[in-house]
Amino acid sequence: MPDLIRLVHSNVYSKKFIVQEFHKFIDGELSVFKITQKLGEIAEYKKPSWLVKDTVLEKYYPGGTVDKADAWSYALEVPVGKEKEVAPPVESPVTTPVRPKSAISRFFVAKPKTPTTANAKSEDNKSKEEKKEKERREGK
Known about the structure:
Layout: H1 2-8, H2 15-25, H3 32-42, E1 43-46, E2 49-52, H4 54-60, H5 117-139
Antiparallel strand pairs: 1-2
Helix pairs in contact: 2-3
């Protein structure tokens, strides 16, 4: 149990990675399922890292702290993009939020103003009617 606590406490990696790492460490003596169960019993994930419950820490580590000298040496390749230690949160300056343009406006495209097919047909019909009217007048 102390080895699992040492691996898990303040760890920023995923549950899957931690379980696989411990499984490798103990040479498969416990199933992945059992390790996952035990992880759930002794620790909980609180952003940005895993924290072993105080009662468990006290039982295996007097004083409730894991010694930094006992740092875990990983057997598996560590996931890229994660730091081993959690950095303190960085305060960002307060800025006024920029109001984005309406999301729906990007779906509308301005179309050039040209007569539609329906309008063009009605124009042709008007000119035909005008010709007929003119022919009738001339014929009379």
